[in-house]
Amino acid sequence: MTLAEATLGHERSGRLLRTAWRYGLSAAGPVLVSGAHFAAALMFLRALPPAQFGLLSFLFVVVPFCLSASGALVGAPLVTAIKQAVAIDPSDLATYLKSNLVICALAAAIVFALTISQAPMAVALLLAGYAAMMALRWFARCLTYVTDGPVRPILSDLLYGATLTVGLLGLFVTHRLSLQSAAVTLAVAAALAVPAFGLDFLRKQFRPGGSLLRYGAVWRDVTRWSLMGVALTEMTANAHAYLVTFVAGPAAFAVLALGALLMRPAALVLSALPDLERPAMARKLAAGDKSGAFRSVKEFRTASGAVWLATILLAGAVLMWFPHLILKKGYDESQVLAVLAIYAAIVAVRTLRGPESVFLQAAGEFKALAGASLWSSVTSLVVTFVLLVLAGPIVSLFGILAGDVVMTGRIFGLTRRWRLAHG
Questions:
Q1: Cα–Cα nearest to 101, from 74, 125, 61
Q2: Is residue 380 a part of any domain in this protein?
Q3: How far apart are CA 123 and CA 129, in angstroms?
Q4: CA 13 from centre of chain
Q5: In this structure, is residue 11 part of a structural domain?
Q6: 41 occurs within a structural domain
């Protein structure tokens, strides 16, 4: 081996280690949260009847949508600000902080409206409080990643995951886990994780100031398109959750939630990785380093693929050696395995397009992304509804897969167009 070859190999190894460290650090918090949600879902599955398990599983679909909407409404402007200035303007930040309070209230109202018909008033209010605290925490994560780095978000994830797991485990082993006690634990865990972002953040968040009127320009230029993209993406990704829950009831959705349970670690980690990568790509584009931004896209895909593969291996290990954890009495084993297989394909398609989607967000192509989501959302809604009516809840998942395939094709087309336009 020549000196040049040895040097090149050393550089590649160093780059691989740096990439693994960066994504490992970024994924550490989401992995903790994913583990807590996985453990929570297992305990809900073992302790609660199918209808209540289905309701809480539906909550774990609705709240992430609220968090994605929060990212679109107040997270996307932060990324845009990075491209335009070295630091975020204080008056703009005050506006985002005030807007975030409105978003938290809306998240609470949405969850309350969706759960009140299926749960007692006290439980619906607790779940609404959980949604508000999670939205507040999510904005704090977005802001902190932009301004201070990943340490506080990881600490917050650790507090949330530990509180949720310990609280639910204590209730489970003492046979006191119920729908209401689960709702209390969720709300408390989310609330205790917020102070990890520091007193300075809390003072700024609740300090009088900022103008919602100033948000009008942000809405016109950025967030109406990013929110539209999020809403259409949600229809593409989770049309079945809403249709099955409202058409067939939470008990029917419980079967889909059970089959999807083993893919949840990949889904959560892949949804959280962009929080670190999006601002990093935006900084590189702002500096004119397009090759560096596309290198980040490739590294992101490698990391995402590794997460997907690890999740598949974990699912196989659980089903091979600990099937009793998942295949509870009252659920059909063949149905659960069929749902798991379809979800694995869905997450694989999302893993494939994720890096390009984040790149386009970093490039500020929110309007184009919203347009890309339009046809995929229509495909998901129509195909899912038709399959649900004709063939039942499990087969309806192919409608989600069809919508994801359409979106993936359009996003890759947008990325190629961006490359041609910008050199």
A1: 74
A2: yes
A3: 10
A4: 31
A5: no
A6: yes
What sign does the CA torsion over 43, 49, 55, 58 have? positive
In this prediction, residue 1 has a pLDDT band, given cuts at 50, 70 and 90, of: low
Interatomic CA distance for residues 59 and 111, integer angstroms: 8
Of residues 259 and 183, more confidently modeled? 183
> What integer best gives the mean pLDDT of the chain?
84
- Helix (H) or strand (E) run with residue 51 in it: helix 50-70
What is d(CA 376, CA 400) in angstroms, rounded to the nearest whole number?
A: 9
**Comparison of pLDDT for 40 and 207, the residue scoring more:** 40
What's CA 324's distance to the chain center, in Å? 28
Query: Which residues span the domain enclosing 78?
Result: 25-422
DSSP 74: I
Q: What is the pTM of this model?
A: 0.76
| Torsion angle of C-alpha atoms 168, 169, 174, 178, degrees rounded to 10 | 30
Q: Return the pLDDT at 104.
A: 95
Query: Within a domain: residue 298?
Result: yes
- Range of lowest pLDDT (76-80, 294-298, 320-324, 410-414): 76-80
Confidence of residue 348 (pLDDT cuts 50, 70, 90): very high
Domain tally for the chain?
Answer: 1
pLDDT reported for residue 2? 58
pLDDT at 34 over 80: no
Tokens for 202, please give them.
């809390």
